[in-house]
User: Which sequence fits this backbone?
């Protein structure tokens, strides 16, 4: 996703607190150059430079990858980084990727404080959302699921690990679902869990292709989506939704009968 934003001409800031920044840059190179990470390591220098020059001619976007040690940075550090990048490099990101939210620090809660995970993770989520509002840019991060959600083919917001305060704070949440069948097809399913920008019942589930060797997502044929179309509201599957469906069918039958001519009936 960061590589795609870069090719769209956007400035991207990638903050990693888990994987080394060199590894992140290697994955992004593999995506942009359309080669696997294994082939990237043995790619001749002249071919590498030619590929890089072609990409540079196609986009005006810039990307910066910044690494922090795990659980050692909070929104105060990120705010300082944004100001420093703007002052020293005239770099103003259009989007931030943070890897990942649960291993950040909280700027309001002191390290080692006797606090539960619900409050701590919710505090981090609120601080990051506040930072996004302050700089008027989106921040995309990730979280993990519970043990039951890890093996579920239909996860929900309740499967968010550590704190339900995170989905309560986020504006938009999706779940990435994989299975043996999807892996054989080189696909991954995406399910909308929460959407404050649009109706979350529209395109609730869909699949995209995934090339894991090149760390790339791509569109699949429309036929792959046919079995996943689920535009009905969630309550349609409940008992109340069933009664609503029966009422709608009865009204439709009444309207249909009403079109007939009852002139032959005697009063």
Assistant:
């Amino acid at each position: 996703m960061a590589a795609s934003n870069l090719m769209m001409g956007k400035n991207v800031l990638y903050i990693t607190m888990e994987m080394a920044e060199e590894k992140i840059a290697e994955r992004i190179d593999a995506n942009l150059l359309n080669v696997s990470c294994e082939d990237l390591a043995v790619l001749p220098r002249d071919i590498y430079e030619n590929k890089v020059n072609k990409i540079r001619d196609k986009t005006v976007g810039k990307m910066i990858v910044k690494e922090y040690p795990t659980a050692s940075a909070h929104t105060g550090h990120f705010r300082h980084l944004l100001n420093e990048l703007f002052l020293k490099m005239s770099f103003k990101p259009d989007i931030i990727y943070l890897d990942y939210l649960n291993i950040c620090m909280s700027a309001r809660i002191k390290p080692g404080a006797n606090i539960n995970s619900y409050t701590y993770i919710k505090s981090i989520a609120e601080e990051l959302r506040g930072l996004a509002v302050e700089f008027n840019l989106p921040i995309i991060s990730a979280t993990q699921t519970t043990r039951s959600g890890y093996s579920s083919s239909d996860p929900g917001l309740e499967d968010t690990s550590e704190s339900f305060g995170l989905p309560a704070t986020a504006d938009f949440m999706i779940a990435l679902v994989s299975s043996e069948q999807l892996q054989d097809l080189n696909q991954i399913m995406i399910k909308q869990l929460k959407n404050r920008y649009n109706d979350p019942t529209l395109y609730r589930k869909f699949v995209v292709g995934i090339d894991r060797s090149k760390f790339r997502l791509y569109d699949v044929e429309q036929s792959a989506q046919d079995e996943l179309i689920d535009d009905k509201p969630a309550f349609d599957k409940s008992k109340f939704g069933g009664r609503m469906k029966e009422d709608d069918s009865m009204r439709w039958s009444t309207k249909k009968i009403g079109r007939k001519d009852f002139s032959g009936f005697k009063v």
Notes: The longest strand covers residues 187-195. The chain has two domains: 1-170, 171-256.
